[in-house]
Design brief:
By secondary structure, this protein is an alpha/beta fold. It has ten helices and ten strands. The strands form two sheets. Strands 1-10-9-6-2-3-5 form a seven-stranded parallel β-sheet, with helices on both faces. Strands 4-8-7 form a three-stranded antiparallel β-sheet, with no helix packed on it. α2 runs parallel beside α3.
């Protein structure tokens, strides 16, 4: 069925949006702004002697070179910072894929983030956290023990997923918002899109399963910061900002959050309908 929000111009997208939207010129500007926002939270908490707990993605990843450079050049300590990664791919036995696999989010963070930060600044290993398929309940429990999440940083997937929270059209909004960290099967659309960057389009080689932090944990963060920058994000951001809340497009369930924003490129703001 045709959805009128897909036809919204850039000006109409911004008007009466259910999620505050900021438009930036290009990918580089968006990624740099994302890195600066992450660092601002860490620096403010460090000054107050407070712990920082952030839920972070591997996708988008363009922010990490900027973040690493800023941490090292400004000598910002991460000793009291926790990076909680959103998700990880699983193999057919529902175990983490090997860290050396080119698709592994754990491998990416180790190689491209943690190994690049100066030893005297990096947080201890136990503060670099991924959801564990052997004990999914451990992550929500940890976040409670840490006093909650300062901010979630992430993107929006082709199905409206944040982390790997895929659509569940038969569920009510309230039911979906109670879903916590769990193992699930990845939607075919998500596997296809992710295969383009991850495996040069070899969709049949993409993992079918993942473990993901839930919308329960995400929605309880003090801040939610989302970023969109691809051509196909034009449709995604319009539905995210103008559809009614529905478990069929999970990001819409975050529209009512008290401190949420969406930063997009001019490319994603432009309409192609």
């Amino acid at each position: 069925m045709e959805k009128k929000y897909y036809e919204l111009t850039k000006e109409e997208l911004l008007r009466n949006s259910k999620i505050p939207v900021q438009i930036m010129p290009d990918n580089e500007t968006v990624f740099r702004a994302m890195a600066e926002e992450i660092l601002r939270i860490i620096e403010n908490n460090n000054l107050q002697g407070k712990r920082t707990v952030l839920i972070c993605p591997v996708g988008p990843v363009g922010q990490y070179p900027y973040l690493v450079g800023m941490i090292n050049s400004r000598h910002i300590s991460l000793k009291n910072t926790w990076f909680i990664n959103m998700d990880e791919y699983l193999d057919e036995n529902l175990a983490w894929i090997d860290k050396n696999d080119r698709l592994s989010f754990r491998g990416f963070m180790d190689k491209n983030v943690y190994a690049q930060i100066k030893d005297e600044l990096i947080m201890p290993d136990n503060q670099r956290v991924f959801p564990d398929p052997k004990d999914p309940a451990a992550l929500p429990k940890l976040l409670e023990e840490l006093g909650g999440v300062d901010a979630v940083f992430g993107g929006i997937g082709i199905t409206g997923h944040v982390a790997f929270n895929e659509p569940a059209g038969t569920m009510s909004c309230g039911e979906y918002l109670q879903l916590r960290t769990r193992i699930l099967e990845i939607a075919p659309e998500t596997r296809a899109v992710n295969s383009i960057d991850g495996l040069d389009g070899a969709v049949d080689e993409m993992p079918r399963y993942c473990i993901t932090i839930g919308l329960y944990e995400i929605s309880r963060a003090r801040k939610i910061r989302l970023y969109c920058f691809r051509n196909w994000h034009r449709a995604v951001v319009r539905r995210a900002c103008h559809d009614e809340p529905t478990a069929a497009f999970p990001v819409t369930l975050l529209q009512g959050h008290k401190d949420i924003s969406l930063t997009i490129t001019e490319k994603a703001a432009g309409s192609s309908f």
